[in-house]
Amino acid sequence: MNRSNFQFFRTGACVALLAIVLMPVYLSATWSVIAVDARTGRVVVSSATCVPQSRLIGFPAEGLMDIQAIVVPGIGVAAAQAGVDRSRVNQRLIYAEMKNGTDPADILEMLSDDPDYQRRQFAIVDLQGRMVGFSGEGNSAASLSVQGRIPHEEIYFSIQGNILASNDVVYDAVRRFMSAEGTLTDRVMAAMEGADEAGGDVRCTCETDPVPAAPCHGRNAHVAYILAADSTDPEGDSFNNGDYAMYINVTDDNIESHENGNPVMTLRQRYEAWKAAGR
């Protein structure tokens, strides 16, 4: 792939996912897309992982979004993955500092005090167009992150992943994000599909348990979600539980028989249904 097609800002190495108190717990094969549109004020985060929903609940977490996404309506969005802090200290720090208007680069410097910093993967993008990404040296390949901007528009993004089939999982997602037409959420959904079609993690297949009772095509993850927040959306009492414009969550235990065992394909189906409903 010709990387010159992309407007790169930063790249890094990637990760393995979720720090559990003293023992690491890995969210293998996780990729995510975070993006903002400074013109509309919308922020979006989407992700998929090869970790089953039952294991995410055991972290404990309600799901992938619950422990990974940091959403600050009217300010920006972030993702904390790989050796994620199960205590949520890192996530709360990112949230608080984003609300304070702190530069993402400075937030990343604060996070570096974490003794497990080199097992983490972070990405932060705000509506001022400030972006940063980090993938620790302790993360497993293929792992990387890319930050960029759509030329001549006020759309900024970061795409990252860890334990991927290849670097092309992220590079293809970047290409799809930049070439897609439509809204910011349309671009993010296209990027998620680009990563999925590039292979995600080859260890997560249609035969990997748990297997949903639905047709399956090219599954590279067990769960996937997409979330969009507008600047006027009410916040909750945490870093990602507000009343947002859109949240669609697909897990291996909520895929229905008429959908697809590939959660990214089902995410697309549910996203199109959401749009058709005029929401």
UniProtKB/TrEMBL annotation:
<dbReference type="InterPro" id="IPR029055">
    <property type="entry name" value="Ntn_hydrolases_N"/>
</dbReference>
<dbReference type="Pfam" id="PF06267">
    <property type="entry name" value="DUF1028"/>
</dbReference>
<protein>
    <recommendedName>
        <fullName>DUF1028 domain-containing protein</fullName>
    </recommendedName>
</protein>
<dbReference type="InterPro" id="IPR010430">
    <property type="entry name" value="DUF1028"/>
</dbReference>
